[in-house]
Structures are given as structure tokens and as C-alpha cells.
Specification:
Layout lengths: L4 H9 L21 E3 L29 H6 L1 H5 L5 E3 L4 E3 L7 E7 L6 H13 L3 E6 L9 H5 L4 E3 L5 E3 L4 H17 L4 E4 L7 H14 L3 E7 L8 E3 L3 H9 L9 H6 L5 E2 L9 H7 L4 H12 L5 E5 L25 H15 L1 H5 L1 E8 L2 E7 L4 E7 L5 E5 L1 H4 L3 E5 L5 E3 L6 E5 L3 E9 L5 H41 L1
Length: about 475
């Protein structure tokens, strides 16, 4: 595949000219991150010693994934280019997804030990990534001693679990104390509040202030909502619905994408969520082809403004309409084409400040044919996505691109040069996405041609010298033979 060129050539062609991303312990900010979102139990089962009543064939039961499994298979995430690993809740829980907390002061025994969690944190940091966990508060187990000892802190849910009243000052104190102790003991880099839309805004602000007095870590939401004081980022309202409806098949209405992108800066952007169905289920329902659909969707997600959050299994087009079907065990023994595409896009994003935080200008959107520009003072990119059933073209003006430029395509190896009328005409086949780097027009490379001439001359001289030496050797051998005959 043409796209695979970037894995081997990106470092030579782009990384030398673009600033490399800061390592996890330097200047990288939340706006620069890309987040890979997993559930510990559904990633990889490394140890059998913590497989208590594990039933790998039952999607509603613990399936065996553990901290050690994440540690051993960390390169799968690293090689896709993600910079933050979000692993969900880690506390003792009655359910595999960690939401039904039994004890905030203990690790879930199916996941592993304190030592194994510490090793995971260290391994993540050794790979220049950051680690984030979830804080669930709205489906607490009836067996939690807080529920037993302080029922006034809670309201009961229909399923028999309990929701912590985060407006209760005493309940706030208890939760802040336990989370503060956790981050003091373990060098995690971020927290995500689950079901954030149900939490008291004043509590979120207080929680943020007190947690960040201990260490300045990320604090984000898991819900589509308007920004709240104390949260570093929330999920962009409407992002899942807009992205899903735009890419579930070709020839879809994409008119909502420009407004979505214009509002996405500083927000979390995602097409999937561990709270709901998989985007693949929408694609299948619309009779789309998941590999192609996901390829276009990832191009959009990893080049538009915002902080991308990608759920585990999206790289293999995991399906599922409802929980727990959408929380399947990750199958790593799959075709790597989509994984490579994610790696290519993330490598590009990590190397380009313009793609992470640059200005956005939507240049064209019509009937599934989308073109937009990401730029800053140092560089300019053009992203073109043809999500239609026919070949499409569009001419960009000199005012939009500049004069004497060329558009270097990175995945389809296309080069778009300025035409006689000054325009740049982009043409893409159906269901194809391309990312173009805007660079100065390249004419004949005089230095390169001169070097070739010099090499040619040197080579010819070398051949001449070899020929002369060979001729002289033959003459010497002939003379020696004549002398021997005379004797």
C-alpha cells in the first residue's frame, strides 16, 4: 500500500524538517496529546494468577485482562503514535469495566497488584507516554462501605447501584481525600471523571483545585458537554453523531463538518465512546465497508482541530451496538493496514504543530467532498477527503495556497503543481483521503545534477585508471614471458 511509505520515509522526509514532539516529561500540553482509551480487562491477559472466575467467552464477566498485559503489549499503543494511555477505572469493582466500585483504596484483584500497576506506570513513562485513569462515582456498589455507613451521600439507581451526591460537602471531602492519596502514591498523569454531566459543577471546580495543588495533572470529562470550570477539556458536543453520520457510508451529508471543526479547538474529539455503541455498528447498518470508512474517519479525526480520543479496538474496526458487546477482547492478530494508517497519521500529527494546534480554514465542502487547511507561520497542510462515489476535483486559488508552490501528497504520492491560471487543481478518486504538504515549487535541482555529473566523471576516471592498470599489467606479463623464452 502507498500509505506505508510514511513508516520508513517520514523520519527522513518530514521529521528532519518538522519539530519533534516533546517527550512526556517536557513541554507537551493536553492540546498536543492523542489519547488511546482502553479497559484493563479487555486488552490483554498476561497472568493467570489473577484470573479469579474469569470467563473469556462471557462478555458480561471478567475476561482476564490485567496491568501486566498492558505492560507487555505497550508497543502496540506506542507504535500507533498515541501519547496518552487512558486505562479506565482501576479500583476494586463488582464489574469488569470498573464502574461499580467496591473500594477506592484497593486495586481490582483481577487487574493485578500495586507492584504491577507501578510497573505499568513506569513502562508508559519509559515510552514517552502519559497514563490516565477514570474516577467513577455514579454506579457505586451496594457493598461499598460508604454506601453502608453513609447512605445519605447517595441516591439509588434503578439497577441497584448507587450514585454519589457530589453536591454533598462531606461526600466531596471523602472522594477528594481518597483520590488525593492515590495520586500522591502513584505518578499518574491524568484523571477522567466518569458521567461528568451528572456531577455538581461546584464539586468539579473544587476537586480540580485540590487535586492540582498536589500535582498539575490533566482533568478531563467523558461526556459531551459545555466547558466547566476546573476541567481541562470536555468532549465536543455533537462530535460523535456528526462524525458517525458523515462517514458511515459514502455520499453522506457532510455539511455539519465545517461547524464541528470550527468549534473543536481545545475539545476532546471522538467517534466512539466506551459508554455506547461502536461506530462500526453504524457503518454495518448503513451497509458500508468498515476498513474504508474507518480510514477516512481517522484521516478526519487526526488532522482536524481538537484532542483525539480513540477507543481500543477501533484500529481493528471492532463492532458492537450495546454494552457489553462493544467491550470485546482486543484481537491483535488482524490485518495491520488500518493500524498502519493510524500510525502514519499520528506520526504526522506528532511531528507537526500546525496539524495539532494550527489555524483552520475550510476551503470546500459539498456532497462528501471536503477540503480544509491547517497552518501556522512555519507550515501549511491541505487535507482532502473524497467521501463520495465518484472521482472529484477542486481548484484552490493562489490566494489560498500562495504562488510558486506545490502540494506534496503523503499517502497517495500525488504532486499538485500550480497551473497556468495560478490555481492548484486537486483530484481524488472515490473514497480516498490525502494529506498535502505545501512546499516551495521544486524545479531542477542544480546541486543534485552537478553531484551526478561529478560522480559520473569520477566513475569514468576510475574505469580509465583500471583499464590503464590492466593494460600495463598485460604488457609487464608479456615482457616477462619474452625474457623467460630467451633464457
Amino acid at each position: 500500500m502507498k500509505a506505508k511509505w510514511i513508516s520508513g520515509i517520514l523520519s527522513a522526509m518530514l521529521l528532519l524538517s518538522l519539530a519533534a514532539p516533546a517527550s512526556a516529561d517536557e513541554t507537551r500540553e493536553l492540546k498536543d496529546e492523542s489519547i488511546y482509551d482502553v479497559l484493563v480487562d479487555r486488552y490483554f491477559n498476561k497472568l493467570v494468577s489473577n484470573d479469579y472466575d474469569v470467563i473469556a467467552t462471557d462478555q458480561s464477566a471478567f475476561n482476564g485482562g490485567d496491568f501486566a498485559g498492558l505492560t507487555s503489549e505497550i508497543l502496540h499503543i506506542k507504535e500507533m503514535g498515541f501519547t496518552v494511555l487512558s486505562i479506565g477505572p482501576v479500583f476494586a469493582s463488582a464489574t469488569y469495566d470498573g464502574k461499580e466500585v467496591v473500594d477506592y483504596t484497593q486495586f481490582e484483584r483481577h487487574f493485578g497488584t500495586e507492584e504491577e500497576f507501578t510497573e505499568l506506570v513506569e513502562t508508559v513513562h519509559d515510552n514517552d507516554m502519559k497514563l490516565m485513569i477514570d474516577i467513577p462515582t455514579q454506579q457505586i456498589s451496594s457493598q461499598h462501605f460508604w454506601v453502608i455507613d453513609n447512605p445519605e451521600w447517595f441516591t439509588e439507581n434503578e439497577d441497584g447501584t448507587f450514585a454519589l451526591d457530589t453536591a454533598n460537602p462531606v461526600a466531596q471531602d471523602a472522594l477528594i481525600e481518597v483520590v488525593s492519596g492515590f495520586i500522591q502514591q502513584y505518578e499518574i498523569d491524568g484523571l477522567r471523571l466518569q458521567e461528568t454531566e451528572k456531577l455538581d459543577p461546584a464539586f468539579i471546580d473544587r476537586f480540580s483545585q485540590e487535586i492540582k495543588e498536589i500535582r498539575d495533572i490533566y482533568l478531563i470529562s467523558d461526556a459531551e458537554m459545555e466547558p466547566v470550570e476546573g476541567l481541562d477539556a470536555v468532549v465536543l458536543p455533537g462530535v460523535e453523531e456528526t462524525l458517525r453520520s458523515s462517514y458511515k457510508n459514502f455520499d453522506q451529508d457532510t455539511s455539519g463538518l465545517p461547524e464541528l471543526m470550527e468549534n473543536a479547538e481545545g475539545k476532546l474529539i471522538q467517534a466512539d465512546s466506551l459508554r455506547s455503541s461502536r461506530v462500526t455498528s453504524d457503518i454495518v447498518s448503513a451497509q458500508g465497508f468498515p476498513p474504508t470508512r474507518m480510514r477516512l474517519l481517522f484521516t478526519q479525526l487526526l488532522t482536524m482541530p481538537g484532542i483525539p480520543v480513540v477507543q481500543y479496538g477501533s484500529e481493528v474496526a471492532m463492532n458492537g451496538e450495546t454494552l457489553p458487546e462493544s467491550h470485546q477482547l482486543l484481537n491483535m492478530a488482524v490485518e495491520k493496514e488500518l493500524i498502519d494508517h493510524i500510525n502514519n497519521l499520528n506520526s504526522l500529527r506528532n511531528s507537526s504543530e500546525a496539524l495539532r494546534t494550527g489555524d483552520l480554514e475550510v476551503l470546500h465542502e459539498e456532497d462528501g467532498w471536503l477540503i480544509y487547511k491547517r497552518s501556522n507561520d512555519e507550515e501549511t497542510w491541505i487535507v482532502a477527503i473524497n467521501n463520495s462515489s465518484s472521482t472529484r476535483n477542486f481548484s484552490l486559488s493562489v490566494e489560498e495556497i500562495g504562488s510558486d508552490k506545490q502540494l506534496q501528497g503523503l499517502f497517495e504520492n500525488d504532486i499538485v503543481r500550480q497551473e497556468a491560471n495560478g490555481d492548484y487543481k486537486i483530484t481524488l478518486d472515490r473514497e480516498i483521503a490525502e494529506t498535502f504538504h505545501v512546499i516551495d515549487e521544486r524545479g531542477f535541482n542544480k546541486a543534485y545534477i552537478a553531484a551526478l555529473i561529478i560522480l559520473y566523471v569520477v566513475f569514468m576516471i576510475f574505469l580509465w585508471v583500471v583499464w590503464r592498470k590492466g593494460r600495463q599489467r598485460k604488457a609487464d606479463e608479456a615482457a616477462k614471458s619474452q625474457n623467460e623464452n630467451r633464457q
